[in-house]
Amino acid sequence: MQIYKCNNSAVEAIKKDGECLIQGFGGSMEPILHSGDVFKFSLVEENTELNKNDIVFCKVHGNLFLHKITAINGERIQIGNNRGNINGWTTRKHIYGKFVEVIDKNNR
After folding, report:
1. Cα-based angle 65, 70, 74 (whole degrees, multiple of 5)
2. 3-class secondary structure, 82
């Protein structure tokens, strides 16, 4: 399976295949997700359960993130990192994937 960066190609792949591998970069999700590791995400569909603290592949204000759900208010879903920064509110249609597992720990 191809490994994607956190970009529009990954959005297309997860919509087409129902899952995708994404290599994450940056330290904002440490120690949950580590920079350089490869993560498997499954497609979020209408019936996919989403909860606070789920790690998701999503779009907020035009930017793609591998971050976590920090709050849910009806149809609105708040996204933030593991350092307390809030990226903003989005909707279910912009939550593309839900974290499944770490595939490659990048030689850790």
Report:
1. 105
2. coil
Length of the chain: 108
- For the domain that residue 98 is a member of, what is the CATH number? 2.10.109.10
Reported as a single tens digit per residue, the pLDDT across 72-88 is 999 999 999 999 999 99
Q: Which of 75, 1, 71, 83 is nearest to 40 (CA)?
A: 1
**Is the pTM here over 0.90, yes or no?**
yes
Residue 62 belongs to what domain range?
A: 3-104
Taking CA atoms, 47 is separated from 14, 40, 43, 76, 92, in Å, by 16, 19, 11, 16, 11
What digits encode the pLDDT tens for the residues 32-73? Answer: 999 999 999 999 999 999 999 999 999 999 999 999 999 999
Half-sphere exposure of 82 (CA within 13 A, CB side): 16
The position carrying tokens 């490659």 is: 104
Q: How many domains does the chain have?
A: 1
